Amino acid sequence: MTSTLRRRSIDVLSEIIVSFVGLRIVDVGCGDGTLVRALTRLGAQAVGIECGDAVLERARATLPVGQEIYLQGEATLLPLENESVDVVVFFNSLHHVPLSHQPTALVEAARVLTPGGKVIVHEPLAEGPFFDLIRPVEDETAARCAAYQTIRTTQALRFEQELFYLNSVCLQSYEDLATRLISAESSRVSLVAKQESRLRADMQRLGELNADGAYIFDQPSRINIGVK
């Protein structure tokens, strides 16, 4: 059952890991490095892996908060040594790996983990206000279900714990939403433009205004924790 409790993702991760100090953590599909920087602030030796040139450039161009580093690589071929990290995180990224390659991505995660290391797979569910908002442009129902099936059937790791919570997404404006959708996939420019009227109306219908005038959308999310 999906939790109705709103929480920050970093707080949920902090309860799972407890202490980040000195841990070698890899964020696979790190995007612009937001999570990598958050983990670094908490004392982790964080590494972000990203395959997209433009996104990786944004991550590297952002002012560092510590000794975090970013590497170009694929989830199916991580640029890391065997048993070299303590935690591997897939934050909203496993469902972006092609279905036929997802089992290999988890095998790779197991390869780079130290014995007893953890894999944390954070995935948005195909439901909730934020999913309904972006669905006309980005309907990932099948991809998200496929990623969960990969987690449930893998032999590379033991997934023994599953958590649910509401991860709230904050958007300042329609332009903020459009930028978010297009930055994830540049080929969506024309589709986002075509859907602008509907997206604007759905922001008003589905969003909850906070005290600062920003729109808040709940995104039910699941975390699966695997052990090597």
Structural notes for this entry:
- The protein has 228 residues and is of the alpha/beta class.
- Helix content is 37%, strand content 28%.
- The longest helix has 13 residues, at 141-153.
What key phrases describe this protein's structure?
28% strand; 8-stranded mixed beta sheet; single chain; alpha/beta; 37% helix; 228 residues
Describe the structure in brief:
Helix content is 37%, strand content 28%. It has 9 helices and 8 strands. Strands 1, 2, 3, 4, 5, 6, 7 and 8 form an 8-stranded mixed sheet that branches.
Structural class: alpha/beta
Helicity range of the residues? 25-40%
What ranges have pLDDT less than 50 throughout 5 or more consecutive residues?
A: none
Mean pLDDT: 95
Strand tally is 8
Provide the β-strand percentage band. 25-35%
Major sheet details:
8 strands, mixed
**Can you tell me the overall shape?**
globular
Topology, pairings included?
Elements: H1 9-17, E1 24-28, H2 34-41, E2 45-50, H3 53-61, E3 69-72, E4 85-91, H4 102-112, E5 113-124, H5 129-134, H6 141-153, E6 158-171, H7 174-184, H8 189-194, H9 196-206, E7 208-209, E8 215-227
Parallel strand pairs: 1-2, 1-4, 2-3, 4-5
Antiparallel strand pairs: 5-8, 6-8, 7-8
